[in-house]
Amino acid sequence: MNKEIIIKEAIKEFQEGELPGLIESKVNIPLSSRKIISFVGPRRSG
Description:
Layout: H1 3-16
C-alpha cells in the first residue's frame, strides 16, 4: 500500500476516535496569585 494512503488513513482514524477521559489534578492552583505558574513534567504518563 502507498505510504501516503497509509498516513491519510492513520490521520483519519485518529480524528474520528474519541478523546481519553479527563483526570482531575490533585494540585491546588492559587488563582489569586499575581505570578506566572507553570507545571513541568510528563503528560499522560502512567
